[in-house]
Amino acid sequence: MQAGLNFDGYEMGTFYDEMFEAPGVARSGTKLLLDKLRSLPPNELLTRQAAAEKVFFDLGITFSVYGHEQGTEKIFPFDIVPRVIEAREWNFLEQGLKQRIQALNLFLDDIYHDQKILQDKVVPRDIIETSAGYFPACQGLNPPLGVWCHITGTDLIRDENGEFHVLEDNLRSPSGVSYVLANRQVLKRTFPQVFSASNVRSVDTYPSQLLEMLHSIAPLRQNRPSVALLTPGVYNSAYFEHSFLSQQTGIELVEGADLVVHDGYVHMRTTKGLIKVDVIYRRIGEDFLDPQVFRADSLLGVPGIMEVYRQGRVALANAPGTGVADDKAVYAYVPAIIKYFLGEDPIIPNIPTFICRDPKQMEHVLANLDALVVKAANESGGYGMLIGPASTKAEQEDFAAKIRHDPRNYIAQPTISLSRCPVIVGDHFEGRHVDLRPYVLYGNDIQVIPGGLTRVALTKGSLVVNSSQGGGSKDTWVLGR
Amino acid sequence: MLSRDADAVYWMSRYLERTSNIARFLDVNWHLTLDVPEENGEQWRPLVVTTGDHEDFQARYPEQSPEDVLFFLIADSRNPNSILSGLQSARQNAFSVRNSIPTEMWEAVNVFYHYVKDTCARPETIIREPERFCAEVKWRNLMIGGIASDIMANDEAWRFFNLGRLLERADKTSRIVDVKYFLLLPSLDHVGMALDHVQWAALLKAVGGFQAYRHAFGRINPSKVVQFLILDHDFPRSILYCLTEAQQCLHNITGTRIGYFSNPAELQMGQICSGLSYHTIEEIFEQGLHEFTDDLQMRLNVLDRAIYDTFFSRFPAIDQSQQQ
What we know:
The complex is a heterodimer of chains A (about 475) and B (about 325).
Chain A lengths: L19 E3 L2 E2 L4 H9 L4 H15 L3 E4 L6 E4 L2 E8 L1 H25 L4 H4 L5 H5 L21 E3 L1 E4 L5 E5 L8 H14 L1 H6 L8 H11 L10 E4 L8 H11 L2 E3 L4 E4 L2 E6 L2 E4 L2 E4 L22 H6 L4 E3 L10 H4 L2 H9 L11 E2 L3 H9 L4 E5 L8 E3 L5 H13 L4 E5 L5 E6 L2 E10 L1 E4 L3 E3 L4 E5 L13 E8 L3
Parallel strand pairs in A: 5-25, 9-10, 9-14, 14-15
Antiparallel strand pairs in A: 1-2, 3-4, 6-22, 7-8, 11-12, 12-13, 16-19, 17-18, 17-19, 20-21, 21-24, 22-23, 24-25
Helix pairs in contact in A: 2-6, 3-12
Chain B lengths: L2 H33 L9 H6 L3 H7 L5 H9 L8 H14 L6 H18 L2 H6 L1 H22 L4 H29 L9 H13 L3 H8 L4 H10 L7 H16 L9 H14 L3 H7 L1 H24 L5 H4 L3
Helix pairs in contact in B: 1-5, 1-8, 1-9, 1-10, 5-6, 6-8, 9-10, 9-13, 9-16, 13-14, 14-16
């Protein structure tokens, strides 16, 4: 290809393309970017792609590939052509996310107090009580400001008509925001002119907003509370993110063994003795948080921390117990939850969802396994999934058996043709399916970071974007006007 | 700062300094063998003694050839003190504290590690001509030192970084003085001969002190060289200089004035420093240079343990640590 990378022969297929509205015709928000890409000298784009990858490698934003001696390291695949979201689209998403988070937070507070929504039979009680994310030990807890889900990363997808849907609510400890910030830093260097001309909204205030939010939930509302991020440690796959957020916010990065409950408060072990901790941003699951209350075999947690929390002497973000609201069976009820607590219709629609717990719906699912996406209710990361149209008969039979064995734990959805973005593949561009994970902070108020992680299914035709399944990412440009 | 973080910064720094010392020793030795053709690797084996790993070396390398020494000290991942292992440990420690050190420092260590790992994957090249590799290790360490002094806040992390570096350097200087002095001892009879001169100059070059020595003393004189390496007030790799600076770091961490102690680490450090500060080189020779360095290394080990107990231990008795 003489001109290096270009869009000759780029096929949009039958999908919604994030860059083009018709073959060769840019959408209004991507016009500047496309002009720039077309004006680059031959091979310039590949040179910039390689330079961007080197930055990630040198900064050690990598993961280890096992099975190789000496631990070969790779960066998370990153495509330098950004995904653009126009201002009006973003305003819609922002409204929708705020509405959804507000309702889910009220739902959590209700579930761990009076359970009115269960009494009114809007959500079936057994779904809650059998949820792996529901912790009876959290009953009656009163988190500061009444906020349970301080940090959320909601997965959104776009169908073939370009309409946004919520795919999943991630209310436990969603990861990926560090890649939003790192991708942006690299992209600014890669396309400086077009970046400044495009009026892209900044994501760089995220660490400050995160810090403000963590300060806002401090038990005594002190001026400068002591804040720590609790990580499972260096072997955790999200450790880079933990370390990055700690560095960007200046809060301590602690492991369970660095913390100790003493005299009714949580302390960290320092070179100058024990120092009290007021707020903990936890990046470990609540089941590992306190061996006295949850899993007794946990070595990652802090014995006694839940009692300190119950006494209101330490704040935890997110509050323990939030996982019940992102159970995939509960997901089906979120439109009803929004209606129940806010009296509003959902702004961003759900994907229609069949709940296998209902015998009639289960029969429908079993009869249509080759067309549906089936998901285990308590799994994440792209695990425990059947993508009907891409599956074999044997896989379908395997899932049919699993569904019959434990119907409560399965849901099914129609296969959505996710929107696509152009991605550099060798010496040309090809369309690949993407999703979008924006991040929402909830302290004194709800803030949506204008941007998010665009995850890309790098395998041709694949609909699975999770990084654990070979997905990559792109920078996401939200335009200011 | 967190005890765990302080521990990691201290060890990151020690491991880096260790690689720098090995690279310097190897580089000087390689140049020396170009000048003075040798038999049977007589010049090389003592280097393994300076790192304290000669038993492991003898067991695994019966021939003990010069190539064996180079491989063992540079690229042998089974030797915990090889340059490769040192970088692995330094990088692992840096990784666990990359939130508390400057991004530039983490990046420098990370890129350094990848350079060493990739180069050591083809050890033949380095062993044939170690010069470029050793220079690279030396320069990259100097750069990390520059990052520490130019952009790191002078906070606790910085003090533990310096403390680790200075103690490691004092230890390595004492080892090379000990080993090299005994190797050169027979030639004391013909002081002034060309060969002898080259050897003593090499010892100074190994710690980067040749020019500084020339300025201070002019002629090469064995006992002056030893005095320079142990007791010099101005040369940043002399043992006394390193330990006096290290003592200052330690007291800056705790806030205790020098001359007093508030913990076992300061007590041990004070005893070592006053012993060194108020002795002449003649007294050291009288005691026996080997006895002196042996005793010093033993005291440095005790100091290292005291630092661990005072600052890094993750399970101190709670009542004790409540004092502040």
